[in-house]
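Researcher: Let's do a round of design. I'm pasting the structure tokens now; please hold your answer until I've finished.
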């Protein structure tokens, strides 16, 4: 399985902050748009194998992490 994203705990904190603000009455359209500062390519080889996927070697070389 391939996952794109930033540091997950940091992402969850941001999501919780937005949810908190919405529950306190903020309109979603009024919340600022945030862009990620970092992207990582992480390939979960065990999940890929369980799904019957073959990850091309060129993609593995480009991955930031293969777990």
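Researcher: That's everything. Go ahead.
Model: Designed sequence:
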């Amino acid at each position: 399985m391939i996952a794109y994203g930033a540091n997950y705990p940091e992402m969850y904190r941001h999501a919780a902050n937005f949810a908190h603000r919405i529950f306190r009455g903020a309109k979603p359209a009024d919340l600022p748009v945030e862009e990620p500062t970092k992207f990582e390519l992480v390939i979960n080889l065990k999940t890929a194998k369980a799904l019957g996927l073959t990850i091309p070697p060129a993609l593995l070389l480009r991955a930031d992490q293969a777990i």
